[in-house]
Amino acid sequence: xxxxxxxxxxxxxxxxxxxxxxxxxxxxxxxxxxxxxxxxxxxxxxxxxxxxxxxxxxxxxxxxxxxxxxxxxxxxxxxxxxxxxxxxxxxxxxxxxxxxxxxxxxxxxxxxxxxxxxxxxxxxxxxxxxxxxxxxxxxxxxxxxxxxxxxxxxxxxxxxxxxxxxxxxxxxxxxxxxxxxxxxxxxxxxxxxxxxxxxxxxxxxxxxxxxxxxxxxxxxxxxxxxxxxxxxxxxxxxxxxxxxxxxxxxxxxxxxxxxxxxxxxxxxxxxxxxxxxxxxxxxxxxxxxxxxxxxxxxxxxxxxxxxxxxxxxxxxxxxxxxxxxxxxxxxxxxxxxxxxxxxxxxxxxxxxxxxxxxxxxxxxxxxxxxxxxxxxxxxxxxxxxxxxxxxxxxxxxxxxxxxxxxxxxxxxxxxxxxxxxxxxxxx
Length: 427
Hints:
By secondary structure, the chain is an alpha/beta fold.
């Protein structure tokens, strides 16, 4: 890392300033520059975290506008604690909409697990908060410096850099040298491919997913996730009164419904329990998103090379069965900023980031894959056995099912909020 430039101290006596220019100011110490490739949730969060720890940040997003792909995102207590580091945790908690009962159901409507918002909060140390992705993105963008975000910019990693040279990011407007580059460019990450060209690409999990925002049903409902034949349906409230719903099904990769995805959801889920048919009927076709689900079945051994770090799906894409993809990207962002604080040894910091994040995220990717196999069974006898075992475990102790998630949700950030009580924290 370059050493701070020391201002030359004049031996001449002070004289009145007679020009129209402001009095001479000493040179400011070198502020390291971080370039974030990708303006999704992980990229924006990493930019905020780096900025608050003293970096100058630039976020390069290929899209002309930040229109989040997806509908809703569940923020568990682990990511809320990460957002506490950035002063945003309580603002997210204010968006919580789940109150009262909820749980897991079978395709016919039978409750397998009954729980409540209060029980979940007690078990995990905080409530689960479901927000629209656009709402979260707006919150993150508002926390960035005004000049940090550049949209409509195609960026590629030209040189990962090394201890004796800065990294280089190539754009249509010219090259940008950076002290640090964050690859936050998603599951199809070009930054990952540049760093590790021989590493296997993400693989298909065997199921596809639909996501949608729809008007709330006329009758009240308890939030639920339903495990049926070869697929899952989830229905959850949003703070604005609408509902977020998602569905998955075991199908060949690359499929699309010739008569539209609403028709496909109707065929697959309209005979499931209420309020699922009503939600499908109320959904607008243009609000239904369909995406094949892929994951990093072969994990990376590290998330850095040179002066570049990978975060989020670029590093550890996972199945959505634990609802941790975005949560882990937020964790990544805060942990990365912790390890690469300006003035420290960048190479050691990046190595520390990989050492902490690779084991945790790899374990979660594998746990999500195991959950996906369990909730996408297609054998009727195996489904019956699975449902009975889940229901029996719930009768033994309602929180037994929740505890399988506790090792993820009880994560804590590596330190107290950055720059707390300083001018930097108020920016």
